[in-house]
Amino acid sequence: MTDSQDYLYPRGRYHGEFKPENLAFNANLQEFAQRVTYICALQTNGKLTPEEAYDQISSLWKQLQTSKNQLGIGDLAEELEEEDW
User: For 1-85, where are the alpha helices, taking DSSP H only?
Assistant: First the structure.
């Protein structure tokens, strides 16, 4: 990444349990947080109405939930399998 991309789209290091799905979800979660920050700033500065900001954040939240479900993060079946070990 270039310096400007590092500044505009910062990424924190992942310190949780390493699984590919956890790493992918963490990246999605960081992107969600960054976009919500931008939407809040635009709404605060009058560039978006509160309704537009809410709709955009709601849409991003649904995308994050879909990502979580597709990656199988927090599946009850997965948790039960881990307890059996």
Answer: 3-8, 20-44, 50-71, 76-84
